[in-house]
Structures are given as structure tokens and as C-alpha cells.
């Protein structure tokens, strides 16, 4: 019984570590003003990502936007996703691309003072 429980723990831990290793975080609870972008570096491989902005219960009103793009030899969007709360992006795997993320408070109609804590990650 103990051996079976230990084996299950090892399998779950290994699966969790493998999943965590597939994301590259370029902001992790980073205070960020409205419409201020957070950028990843050029990544060797990107197939999507996730992003969220947090400020207690008010974060549900924030509109989050994540985009994978090539900045050269001309700007080209590879993938784009937006929603309230946590936003997930999925697209075909690309190489040598970048990612950016920002939040917007659409109710205000312009920028508002203050910051939300952003978490943004590209998926390898």
C-alpha cells in the first residue's frame, strides 16, 4: 500500500514538473500599469501561452490581451487571444518569435491610475 502511494506521488510530481517546465515566465506577479506591455525575449520555440492580471475580486473587470509575433523583417502576428480573467493562447509552434501582454480596463474609456500584478508565460 505504501509503495503504491509513493509510486502515485512520484508520477504526479513528475507530471507536474514536466508541465511547469513547458512555460517560460516573462512576468510573474509583476506590478504593471494599464496598457503597459510586458515583453518576452525572442524565444527559440513558442506554441502559445497564458496570462492573467490579479487584483482581488476586481481583476474580473480587467481585459487581458496576449500576442505572439515576429518583429522582423516586418511585424507579423502569429497568434492573438484576449478575454477577462486568465487568457490562454494556442497556435502552431514557431521559432525565434516573441510574445507580449497587457491589460485594459474597458469600462473606464482611457487609462486609469494604479497597477495590477501580471503573470505572463509563453509555452514552448
Q: Note the total helix count.
A: 1
Question: Can you write the helix and strand succession as a string?
Answer: HEEEEEEEE
Biggest beta sheet attributes:
4 strands, antiparallel
Name the shape in a single word. globular
Total beta-strand segments: 8
The proportion of strand residues reads over 45%
| Structural class assignment | alpha+beta
Helix content: 10-25%
Q: In whole angstroms, how far apart are the ends?
A: 37 Å
Mean pLDDT: 82
Instruction: State the low-pLDDT regions, or none.
Output: 3-18
Order of strands, main sheet, comes to 1-8-3-6
What's the gyration radius in Å?
Answer: 17 Å
Supply database-style keywords.
124 residues, globular, alpha+beta
Would you kindly provide a brief summary of this structure?
It is built from one helix and eight strands, in the order H-E-E-E-E-E-E-E-E.
General description of the model:
The chain is of the alpha+beta class and 124 residues long. The protein is built from one helix and eight strands; from the N terminus they run αββββββββ. It has one helix at 2-20, and strands at residues 23-33, 38-39, 46-54, 63-70, 76-84, 87-94, 98-104, 115-123. The strands form two sheets. The chain has a four-stranded antiparallel beta sheet with strand order 1-8-3-6, with no helix packed on it. Strands 2-7-4-5 form a four-stranded antiparallel beta sheet, with no helix packed on it. Strand 4 (63-70) and strand 5 form a beta hairpin. It is globular, with a radius of gyration of 17 Å. The termini are far apart. Residues 3-18 have low confidence and may be disordered.
Amino acid at each position: 500500500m505504501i509503495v503504491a502511494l509513493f509510486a502515485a506521488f512520484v508520477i504526479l510530481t513528475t507530471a507536474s514538473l514536466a508541465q511547469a517546465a513547458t512555460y517560460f515566465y516573462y512576468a510573474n506577479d509583476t506590478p504593471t500599469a494599464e496598457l503597459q506591455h510586458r515583453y518576452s525575449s525572442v524565444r527559440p520555440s513558442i506554441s502559445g501561452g497564458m496570462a492573467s492580471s490579479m487584483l482581488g475580486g476586481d481583476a474580473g473587470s480587467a481585459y487581458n490581451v496576449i500576442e505572439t509575433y515576429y518583429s522582423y523583417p516586418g511585424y507579423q502576428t502569429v497568434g492573438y487571444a484576449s478575454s477577462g480573467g486568465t487568457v490562454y493562447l494556442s497556435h502552431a509552434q514557431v521559432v525565434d518569435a516573441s510574445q507580449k501582454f497587457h491589460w485594459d480596463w474597458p469600462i473606464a474609456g482611457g487609462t486609469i491610475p494604479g497597477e495590477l500584478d501580471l503573470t505572463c508565460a509563453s509555452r514552448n
